[in-house]
C-alpha cells in the first residue's frame, strides 16, 4: 500500500496551526454575517470553520512535506505529464486488475495505481459539497471554481513552490487536474440529497433576524478586533513607509479611530460593520466622562498591564541580584492581574458585559434593522 505517513503528518500540522489561523481567516466571515443578519448561527460558523480547515488541509496535502533544496537538486524525474488518462493506462498495465477475474479486484485496489487516483478524487469531494450546500453555487459556477482550485494546486507545484526550489519537486499532472475537478463535481452532486437532511440556510436566516437586536459577547468582540486590526495595520504601514517606528503613532491612531467617533456619538468602523453603537445604560448617547472611563478601563489599563508585565520580565535578565526578588514579585503580581482579566472575560460570557462596560456605565446597542423595519 502507498505510504500515507507524509500526508498524515501534513494533516497533523494543520490541526496544530488551525486554531491560530481560524480566527484570522474567519473574521471576515463573522463581520459579513453580523453586517448582513445582525447575528451569527453556531451551525453556519461550524460549517465555515470546517471549510477553512478543509482548504488548509487540501493545500497542505499538495505542498507538504517540504524536501530540502539539496534533495530537489538531485531529482531527475519528469516535472509534468500532459497525457490525459495516463492513470487508466497505468492501472490496467501495472495493477494486475482483470475485469473477468474478481479475485484480482481487491489486490488491484491496494496498488498505488488505484490509491493515488482515488485519493485525488476524494481530495476535492468536500469542496463541491461546500459550494452547493453552504454557498448555493450552481453546477457551472462550481465547475469553474473547482477547476480553478485544482489548477492552483498544479501551478503551485509546477512553479517549484513559487521559485523556492531549483525545480518542481512534485509532478504537474493533467490527470490530477481532471480527477480533482471530477471529485469536486461528484461532491456537488452528492450534496443535493445530503443537503435535504441538514439545516436549511433559509430557516437559519429567519432565526438570525429574530436575534439581531440582542448584542452578544462575540458580536462586540468582532467590533473590537476589527478596530484594533485597523489600528495595527495602519501602524505597520506607517512604520514601513517612514522606516522608523514611533510608539505615539499607535496612540494617535487609537484616538482617531476609536475615541473621537465615540465622543461625537458616531459608531467606530468596527461597530458600524456589525451594526452597533455606544450608548449609556439608558440607551442615550454616552457622555464625555463615560467614554473616557470606558477606554481607560477597557484599553489603556489592559494594554499597560501586558506592556508592564513584558517590561518586568525583560528586566529580570539584566538587573542586579539584590533587585531580583522585587522584579519576581512584580512579575507574579502582574500575572495575577492578567489572570483576573482573563477570568473577567470568562465571566462576561454569562453577564454579556465586559468589565469596562460595567465600570463606565456604557454598553453597545444594536442598530440593525430587519427587512420589515426598513
Description:
With 374 residues, this protein is mostly helical. It has 17 helices and four strands. The chain has helices spanning 5-37, 42-63, 69-73, 86-94, 105-109, 112-123, 125-133, 139-158, 160-163, 174-195, 201-210, 217-242, 247-264, 269-273, 288-315, 324-351, 355-360, and strands spanning 80-81, 172-173, 276-280, 362-366. The strands form two sheets. A two-stranded parallel ribbon has the order 1-2. Helix 8 (139-158) packs antiparallel against helix 10 (174-195), helix 12 (217-242) crosses helix 13 (247-264) and helix 15 (288-315) packs across helix 16 (324-351). It is globular and about 85 Å long. The mean pLDDT is 85.
Question: Topology, please?
Answer:
Layout: H1 5-37, H2 42-63, H3 69-73, E1 80-81, H4 86-94, H5 105-109, H6 112-123, H7 125-133, H8 139-158, H9 160-163, E2 172-173, H10 174-195, H11 201-210, H12 217-242, H13 247-264, H14 269-273, E3 276-280, H15 288-315, H16 324-351, H17 355-360, E4 362-366
Parallel strand pairs: 1-2
Antiparallel strand pairs: 3-4
Amino acid at each position: 500500500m502507498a505510504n500515507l505517513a507524509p500526508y498524515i503528518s501534513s494533516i497533523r500540522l494543520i490541526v496544530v496551526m488551525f486554531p491560530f489561523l481560524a480566527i484570522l481567516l474567519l473574521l471576515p466571515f463573522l463581520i459579513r454575517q453580523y453586517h448582513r443578519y445582525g447575528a451569527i448561527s453556531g451551525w453556519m460558523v461550524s460549517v465555515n470553520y470546517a471549510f477553512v480547515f478543509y482548504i488548509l488541509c487540501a493545500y497542505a496535502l499538495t505542498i507538504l512535506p517540504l524536501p530540502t533544496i539539496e534533495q530537489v537538486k538531485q531529482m531527475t524525474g519528469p516535472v509534468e505529464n500532459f497525457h490525459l488518462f495516463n492513470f487508466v493506462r497505468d492501472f490496467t498495465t501495472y495493477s494486475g486488475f482483470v475485469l473477468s477475474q474478481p479475485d484480482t479486484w481487491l489486490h488491484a485496489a491496494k496498488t498505488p495505481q488505484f490509491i493515488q487516483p482515488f485519493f485525488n478524487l476524494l481530495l476535492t469531494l468536500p469542496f463541491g459539497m461546500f459550494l452547493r450546500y453552504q454557498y448555493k453555487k450552481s453546477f457551472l459556477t462550481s465547475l469553474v471554481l473547482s477547476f480553478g482550485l485544482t489548477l492552483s494546486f498544479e501551478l503551485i507545484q509546477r512553479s517549484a513552490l513559487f521559485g523556492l526550489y531549483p525545480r518542481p519537486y512534485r509532478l504537474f499532472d493533467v490527470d490530477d487536474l481532471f480527477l480533482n475537478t471530477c471529485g469536486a463535481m461528484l461532491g456537488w452532486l452528492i450534496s443535493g440529497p445530503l443537503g435535504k437532511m441538514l439545516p436549511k440556510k433559509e430557516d437559519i436566516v429567519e432565526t438570525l433576524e429574530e436575534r439581531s437586536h440582542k448584542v452578544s459577547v462575540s458580536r462586540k468582540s468582532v467590533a473590537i478586533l476589527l478596530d484594533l486590526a485597523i489600528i495595527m495595520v495602519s501602524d505597520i504601514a506607517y512604520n514601513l513607509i517612514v522606516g522608523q517606528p514611533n510608539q505615539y503613532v499607535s496612540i494617535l491612531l487609537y484616538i482617531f479611530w476609536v475615541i473621537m467617533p465615540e465622543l461625537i456619538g458616531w459608531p467606530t468602523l468596527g461597530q458600524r460593520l456589525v451594526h452597533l453603537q455606544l450608548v449609556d445604560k439608558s440607551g442615550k448617547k454616552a457622555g464625555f466622562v463615560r467614554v473616557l472611563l470606558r477606554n481607560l478601563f477597557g484599553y489603556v489599563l489592559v494594554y499597560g498591564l501586558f506592556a508592564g508585565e513584558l517590561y518586568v520580565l525583560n528586566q529580570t535578565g539584566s538587573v542586579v541580584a539584590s533587585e531580583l526578588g522585587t522584579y519576581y514579585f512584580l512579575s507574579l503580581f502582574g500575572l495575577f492581574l492578567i489572570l483576573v482579566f482573563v477570568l473577567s472575560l470568562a465571566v462576561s460570557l454569562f453577564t454579556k458585559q465586559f468589565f469596562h462596560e460595567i465600570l463606565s456605565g456604557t454598553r453597545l446597542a444594536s442598530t440593525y434593522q430587519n427587512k420589515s423595519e426598513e
